[in-house]
Design brief:
- The protein is α+β, with helices and mostly antiparallel strands and 405 residues long.
- The chain folds into 2 domains: 222 residues, Serine Threonine Protein Phosphatase 5, Tetratricopeptide repeat (Alpha Horseshoe), CATH 1.25.40.10; 138 residues, Galactose-binding domain-like (Jelly Rolls, Sandwich).
- The chain is 45% helix and 18% strand.
- Helix 3 runs antiparallel to helix 4 and helix 5 runs parallel beside helix 7.
- The termini are far apart.
Length: 405
Amino acid sequence: MVLGGLCLLAGLLSWRILVVGLAAHYAALDTPDAAAAALGWRADHPAALFQRGEALAAREPAVATTLFQASVWNDPTNALTYLALAELWAAAGRLPDAIALAEVADALGPMRSPALSRSAAFWFAQGRPELGIERWSILLRTQPGTAGQLFPVLLRLADEPVTRVLLLPLLDQPPEWWDGFFAYAATHAPRPDPVIFLYNGRNRRGALPSPVEQRVYLDRLWKDGRWTDVYLAWVGGLGERGLEVQGLIYNGGFELPPTAMGFDWRITPTRGVTVETTETFGSGGSRSLHVVFEGRGPRFQNVYQPLYLEPGGYQLRGRVRTDGVPPRQGLRWAVRCNRSGAEPLAATLPFGGKDDWQAFTLNFEVPPSECQVQMLRLEQEDQVGERWDGQGGIWFDDLTIRRGT
């Protein structure tokens, strides 16, 4: 008799396991037919009730409401069910009850992507965009892959003066994903205005912009030809030490490492040449610019600095020490207007040979039009000759530009 009872109990348990397993199997398929099949095996399956309610919400909201309520009763931890029911109640005019349900959902599902997305949509629909943006911010922090969908939307908000105010909380306390969004905005904004707003509006708590933030910002303004904005933003990010070496040429003594940003030095690598700023005897400070040729290569024109000079006459001054570069292959300083194919406004004679430190000057005139930004470049005048073995070096220091000639 005991054995018979145990067999009966085992049979009932096996049947229950089968029913629960089949219901879970059909519910996991996440289709209306599968949800109906799951409910055929287990009428109180919460996921199937939710799926069935989703399928009926548009055309039979009353039935869907009953299904969602039953789903909540059987699984009170699913934030999506509360949000689905909140949407129905909001549509039916039960707004206080809907908001209460949405607040429960936000407490239950703060890290779940589907719940966050649906919560954001709910709050936007209720005219509470600040809460929607909060949910987006959590999504971007916990699910970085959502940036592809959300960054374009945030950029549209920044592009419209009326909606920019919604981003002020993020600008006041930028989240960890903000730098990625700013880089996206600087690259993809149809016009510079929203990028300028995002850059100037950020609360940095007295700190300077990060190099990454400033670089993408300056690159965007440069692309748009906003020269005054570029210059002011670049100066604003220099810091105390950078301001000490600011002049019509920046860091003309080469005391600071070049950053290749704004109106700082830009040094691009090239085959057969090493360019460095390092110590040597006779330096005006602790460093000088050193160009070392280690073999024949392409024409050298790989050290340059943009200038932001008003129209008028100027004089470039500096010191040079040559160390075995043949005069015909030597380097010269040339000043041009920053436009394609521009001929030099003026250029020094090539520096070559072998000699101790010598002073040099170059007078030049910035024209009144089509020359808002200029370029000071260290370059070889012509292609390197075949007879030169490509060995030698040259030093520069104490470069300055002064008004007048």
